[in-house]
Amino acid sequence: MTSSSRKRVRAVTRLVPALLAGALAFAVPGVVSAEPVNGPDVASWQHPGGSGIDWFAVRASGHEFAMVKATEGLWYVNPFFVQDGIGMRAAGVARGAYHYADVRQSPEAQAAYFASTAFPVIGFGGLPPVLDIEDAKGLPPAAVIDWTRRYLNSVQALTGKQPIIYTYPNFWRTAMANTTEFSHYPLWIADYNGRDEPGPLPGGWQRWTFWQYTSTGRIAGVNGNVDLNIYGGGLGDFGSYSNPFGS
Hints:
The chain is of the alpha/beta class.
């Protein structure tokens, strides 16, 4: 994921295709099959010079889902969000949308801002909404935890779907004081460790739903580097999210 204010704190490591081919064969609870279910996440950075993403090429290259940035704080809407949402739907790519948190601003207002913007994706057969929480903006853990609780409750009430939490281990263990309060939410963990699975999970989570393993991936249909992810189970068959004629 990307943001104008985002600071990468983890080392970037590429995983070769041969490693990925066996990544889902290990015994992780909830893994749906030995075949990896792959997908990128994208933002405006994947549209250099206003260029588009060829979602049919993305799907043909074996990527079954994608997450697209919808909003950030109360001031930003990804100008390519609708375009990418339509493209993913047409190509049969399971669609997800995420909000990049600004914990200095009202969580309830941000939940409404995201839900209203992301409805074209998450409201029609899309994946559950995602909260990208990775910057405490200098606030203490108690304040960030309270913000997170209020946002998640609000967006679930607005969308009717339990959100997914995206974060990385060091942030959760420090800025969130490694709280276990949210361990019942699906976890999307960013961990660029060069291995075939994430390291020890923070926050009392026993399993991961998505794993972002690199920010320097290259795939057909996307110009330049892109974050790449693996699905680890828990949300069922991706076919139910990618039917372009489904509800």
